[in-house]
Automatic annotation (TrEMBL):
<feature type="region of interest" description="Disordered">
    <location>
        <begin position="379"/>
        <end position="399"/>
    </location>
</feature>
<dbReference type="GO" id="GO:0071424">
    <property type="term" value="F:rRNA (cytosine-N4-)-methyltransferase activity"/>
</dbReference>
<dbReference type="InterPro" id="IPR002903">
    <property type="entry name" value="RsmH"/>
</dbReference>
<protein>
    <submittedName>
        <fullName>Uncharacterized protein</fullName>
    </submittedName>
</protein>
<keyword id="KW-0808">Transferase</keyword>
<feature type="region of interest" description="Disordered">
    <location>
        <begin position="46"/>
        <end position="69"/>
    </location>
</feature>
<comment type="similarity">
    <text>Belongs to the methyltransferase superfamily. RsmH family.</text>
</comment>
<dbReference type="GO" id="GO:0070475">
    <property type="term" value="P:rRNA base methylation"/>
</dbReference>
<feature type="compositionally biased region" description="Acidic residues">
    <location>
        <begin position="381"/>
        <end position="399"/>
    </location>
</feature>
<dbReference type="Pfam" id="PF01795">
    <property type="entry name" value="Methyltransf_5"/>
</dbReference>
<keyword id="KW-0489">Methyltransferase</keyword>
<dbReference type="InterPro" id="IPR023397">
    <property type="entry name" value="SAM-dep_MeTrfase_MraW_recog"/>
</dbReference>
<dbReference type="InterPro" id="IPR029063">
    <property type="entry name" value="SAM-dependent_MTases_sf"/>
</dbReference>
<feature type="compositionally biased region" description="Basic residues">
    <location>
        <begin position="48"/>
        <end position="58"/>
    </location>
</feature>
<keyword id="KW-0949">S-adenosyl-L-methionine</keyword>
């Protein structure tokens, strides 16, 4: 399969012939950005623990009260979306393969402050977010879609082609459709966003123009989880694979059966945040004496045998979920790729352009939060959340963007979400997998 594929270039009066995208190999050379501070999972976790302990000591009884804080008080700290839930929107752009998360909120994030003439979806998947953006922005002239998973991208590409063909057919009747939309898709990890944009238009990669909007959705799609041969599901037996990129060489099976014992334990502790990591580490290494672990079923059975029986089904499922998460992150080097990609994506934004990121677990969200602060401040970010108040702008009562009422100003941009936006209660009822989703948005100065 070609690494990049031009989809449609269309006008509301005539369909232009399909033209191939420039191959990635022909993309212009892009200078490697200067080295920035790294915040891998080990650093983040260690720092968080250290400061949590110091706070507990300093707080005394106050720290105990903080630990006993009721759930409802904790939920107040979440910026749950209060936007009216548009069931019709999800009905139009949701598919059997995947239901897009925080769809209405993503649309709102890119509604202002400028026309969205260029947009990049770094994780196309089934193209739910992409289609909604194209529908909401008839002024869009350039669309670039990326996904490291060729199977997922092929599904999303088909949906985009169908949408654009339908839009072309309606173009003569709809005066709101403006100009020509050039649409490209690339089988590529979003860490290569500069090379991909350079293959489309050199000015986009070197910063002389930049793009108006970029979206990164870090969630696993249903079409990946539900396919047992990918090795992501704890409920289906399949190979211990977990590669997002089928061409990659490292698999979960390699880690479990050949990596050093201490490294296996570090992965479970730091990437899975599994409290029982030492015990599981020993059991995994011990299993090598019996031939090793070679399927997801083998790993799940090991976890089931070692989980406390009193915890029941939910006990082993939660543990297995954390273990599978840890292995998937390690196989795909997700956290390091994420931080580098956030810097590259911000570099590719035009002035006033916005970058939105949807994360699904604390490790990802912590990196997004810290990196956003680094980007607007131009340096290292402090772990202390209270320190953000020094940068906070006054609350803004904006009916169009009610979730952006607390913003953090820096010399290089604005973090529009001091606290991440989480799904509305209506969306959680529709799609339980969205419960842990968090949306953060940054705008370039």
């Amino acid at each position: 399969m070609a690494a990049a594929r031009r989809l449609f270039s269309f006008h509301h009066l005539a369909l232009h012939p399909r033209a191939p995208a420039r191959p990635l190999a022909a993309a212009v050379a892009v200078a490697v950005p200067h080295r920035r501070g790294k915040h891998d999972a080990v650093t983040c976790k260690a720092t968080g623990k250290t400061k949590a302990k110091s706070k507990a000591k300093a707080g005394g009884k106050g720290g105990e009260r903080l630990q006993r804080r009721p759930l409802e008080e904790h939920l107040k700290r979440r910026t749950r979306s209060a936007a009216a839930f548009d069931a019709d929107l999800y009905g139009r752009h949701g598919h059997a393969h995947h239901v897009p998360v925080l769809l209405g909120e993503v649309l709102a994030a890119f509604r202002r402050p400028r026309s969205l003439r260029s947009f990049v979806d770094c994780t196309v998947g089934a193209a739910g977010h992409s289609l909604a953006m194209m529908e909401a922005h008839p002024e869009m002239e350039l669309y670039v879609g990326m996904d490291i998973d060729p199977t997922a991208l092929e599904i999303g590409r088909g949906h985009i082609e169908t949408f654009l063909a339908g839009r072309e057919g309606n173009g003569a009747e709809d005066s709101s459709l403006q100009g020509t939309l050039r649409a490209y898709t690339h089988v590529k990890n979003f860490k290569y966003i500069k090379q991909v944009l350079g293959s489309v238009d050199e000015s986009l990669a070197v910063g002389s123009s930049g793009v108006d909007g970029i979206l990164i959705d870090l969630g696993m799609s249903s079409m990946q989880v539900n396919r047992s041969n990918r090795g992501f599901s704890i409920l289906q037996d399949g190979p211990l694979d977990m590669r997002m990129d089928p061409k990659a060489t490292l698999r979960a099976e390699d880690i479990l059966n050949s990596w050093p014992e201490l490294e296996v334990g570090r992965i479970l502790r730091d990437y899975g945040e599994e409290s029982n990591w030492q015990f599981l580490q020993k059991q995994i290494v011990k299993a090598r004496e019996m031939g090793g672990l070679h399927s997801t079923g083998d790993l799940v059975k090991l976890i089931q045998r070692k989980c406390n029986v009193s915890k029941g089904r939910q006990g082993w499922i939660k543990t297995a979920t954390r273990v599978f998460q840890a292995l998937r992150i390690a196989v795909n080097d997700e956290l390091r790729v994420l931080e580098d990609s956030l810097h590259s994506s911000f570099d590719c934004l035009a002035t006033g352009g916005r970058l939105a990121v949807i994360s699904f677990h604390s490790l990802e969200d912590r990196i997004v939060k810290k990196t956003f602060l680094e980007l607007i401040h131009g340096g290292e970010a402090d772990d202390e959340e209270d320190d953000e108040d020094d940068l906070a702008l006054p609350d803004i009562d904006d009916e169009d963007e009610p979730w952006f009422n607390q913003r953090l100003q820096g010399r290089n941009g604005i973090v529009l979400t001091k606290r991440p936006i989480t799904p509305s209660q209506e969306e959680e009822k529709l799609n339980q997998r969205c419960r842990s989703a968090k949306l953060r948005v940054i705008q370039k100065a």
